[in-house]
Amino acid sequence: MYYFPLQPPYFILAFGLFVAVTSGAALFGTLQTVVYKWQLEGAEKSGTSLTKKPLLFPFLGVTIGLVSFLVSGLEIFGFPPLLAFAIGLPISLLTCLLMWLQLGSMMTFVETRGMSSLDLDSM
Question: Fewest CB within 10 A of the end CB: N or C in the chain?
Answer without folding.
Answer: N
